[in-house]
């Protein structure tokens, strides 16, 4: 047994930290974990879980409308924001307890407090000095706040899950996945939504067909999207806010919501004091083994330059614990085909290379694409379309990219990602029998490259 208080100490009780801590404890390590805010991190408390619950709530609005085309006398029911908040909070509290129980049952010593580094082996945990042979930093990130006159009036995503009153109108700043997801939520629950984005098309980091297609679909629903436009100033008024824009317009709204990116939670860790290096954005610099510039201090998840996705943090934390305490040195995370979804309306899903990325790599590719009205809307009357796209490497016929927008596509993409990770070729897709009638069958019926 070492002279340290713990073999492994984890700073951060989010997805990556909790997974790594309990796996390490299962391998016999003496593990401690500090979490000063809430267990489960961003995803459970102010991220993917409550956001998905809110999207379910928002989608009932469309469902009530669509039902009329199928013979239902659909009287639009009233929506109660307070009931949604209460039920959401109950579910989050349940998940918080599950995370605590996972740690307790694994034998991890919990410290319900914040931690910072005193030196490379010593931590300050709520005023208590604790030593550890190995340290993992898994503190995640937080929404970045804008910087303009009146920015103090802006709400960020963490706050949107606890709004006292639901607004009648919302101005959203941003064009990434969080911005478009909250546009879906606010609009679906009954608010008048205007989305502002300084670029030409939303979702600029996705495949070149995704942003314009989604932008068109959102506009058809009644969401106003102003591109190449940003906020210059916000003023509080008697009835809400006055928002000045770079295009010279002024908007009146009940709420201003900003989603312009995230920053790593490193400021309170005293990294500089301990000598742990970060990049210009404050993210912790790590190598392929998740080591910082100290070989016994590690970092995983959103606090590093990795893909900011909960399953990625989970995988990294698990792999690290197996490497350190179960001698599985060959364990690794495969970042090649990471599937992800944007719960916009309609939702998007993607994995692998975009068309642009494939061409920039100098690959000779074939592109297969289809654009159609899903079967449900042939009777609902809703003007909504689905897009599906495959990128194929001509050299070996392997599918190296898949991108789609439409109803249920996040559920479809998981299976496509499994196939791509297994090395599926376009010929494998072509010889697979489709499930009829579904939208998913389009992936195995696209025969002609565009």
The largest sheet, given as strand count, sense and whether it forms a barrel, is: 7 strands, mixed
Tell me the span between the first and last alpha carbons.
Answer: 64 Å
Shape: globular
Low-confidence stretches: none
CATH topology of the largest domain: FAD/NAD(P)-binding domain
How many structural domains?
3
Q: How many E-type strands?
A: 21
Tell me the Rg in angstroms.
24 Å
CATH H-tier superfamily of the largest domain: FAD/NAD(P)-binding domain
Helix percentage: 25-40%
Beta-strand percentage?
15-25%
Question: How many distinct helices?
Answer: 13
Helix/sheet category: alpha/beta
Please identify the top-level CATH class of the largest domain: Alpha Beta
In round numbers, the mean pLDDT is: 97
Q: How does CATH name the architecture of the largest domain?
A: 3-Layer(bba) Sandwich
In short:
It contains 13 helices and 21 strands.
């Amino acid at each position: 047994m070492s002279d340290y208080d713990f073999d492994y100490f984890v700073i951060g009780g989010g997805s990556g930290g909790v997974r790594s801590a309990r796996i390490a404890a299962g391998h016999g390590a003496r593990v401690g974990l500090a979490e000063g805010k809430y267990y489960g991190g961003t995803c459970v408390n102010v991220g993917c879980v409550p956001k998905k619950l809110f999207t379910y709530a928002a989608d009932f609005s469309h469902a009530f409308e669509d039902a009329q085309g199928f013979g239902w006398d659909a009287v639009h029911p009233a929506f109660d924001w307070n009931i949604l908040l209460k039920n959401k909070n109950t579910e989050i509290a349940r998940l918080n307890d599950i995370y605590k129980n996972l740690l307790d049952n694994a034998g991890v010593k919990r410290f319900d407090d914040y931690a910072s580094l005193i030196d490379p082996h010593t931590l300050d945990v709520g005023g208590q000095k604790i030593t550890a042979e190995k340290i993992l930093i898994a503190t995640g990130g937080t929404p970045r706040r804008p910087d303009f006159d009146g920015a103090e009036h802006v709400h960020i995503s963490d706050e949107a899950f606890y709004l006292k009153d639901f607004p009648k109108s919302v101005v959203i700043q941003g064009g990434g996945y969080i911005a478009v997801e909250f546009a879906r939520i606010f609009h679906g629950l009954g608010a008048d939504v205007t989305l502002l984005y300084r670029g030409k098309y939303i979702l600029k980091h996705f495949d070149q067909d995704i942003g314009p297609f989604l932008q068109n679909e959102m506009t058809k629903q009644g969401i106003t999207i102003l591109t190449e436009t940003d906020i210059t100033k916000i003023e509080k008024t008697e009835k809400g806010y006055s928002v000045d824009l770079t295009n010279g317009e002024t908007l009146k709204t009940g709420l201003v919501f900003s989603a312009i990116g995230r920053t790593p939670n490193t400021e309170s860790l005293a990294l500089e004091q301990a000598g742990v290096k970060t990049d210009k954005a404050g993210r912790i610099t790590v190598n392929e083994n998740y080591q910082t510039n100290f070989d016994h201090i590690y970092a995983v998840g959103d606090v590093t330059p990795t893909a900011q996705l909960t399953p990625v943090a989970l995988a990294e934390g698990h792999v690290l614990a197996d490497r350190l305490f179960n001698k599985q040195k060959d364990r690794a995370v495969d970042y090649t085909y990471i599937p992800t979804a944007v719960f916009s309306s309609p939702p998007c899903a993607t994995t692998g290379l975009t068309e642009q990325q494939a061409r920039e790599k100098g690959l000779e590719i074939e592109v297969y694409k289809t654009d159609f009205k899903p079967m449900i809307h042939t009777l609902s009357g809703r003007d909504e379309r689905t897009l599906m796209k495959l990128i194929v490497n001509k050299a070996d016929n392997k599918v190296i990219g898949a991108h789609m927008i439409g109803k249920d596509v996040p559920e479809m993409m998981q299976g496509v990602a499994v196939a791509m990770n297994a090395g599926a070729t376009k010929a494998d897709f072509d010889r697979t029998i489709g499930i009829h009638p579904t939208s998913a069958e389009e992936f195995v019926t696209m025969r002609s490259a565009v």
